Amino acid sequence: MENIIDLRTCKKGDKLISKHGLVLEYVRALCKEDYMEHEILYPNGSYGSRTHDGFTFRKKRLDSDHDIIKIIHI
To answer: Is pLDDT at 69 greater than 80 in this prediction?
Structure first.
């Protein structure tokens, strides 16, 4: 059974585990005007974004992407 990811259930500070084992942090939901839906924080301090279902890109999928496979609610 596939793990269902829904970043709409996250709160600031929740831990997000990528398919490559990187631990990211949930920051916030983005505005409807933004292309992506959620802002995340990388361990190095840089910011990124994800779709509701945790994908790095909306349409293009790469093996190297840090797609989210697990949410750890704090």
So the answer is: yes
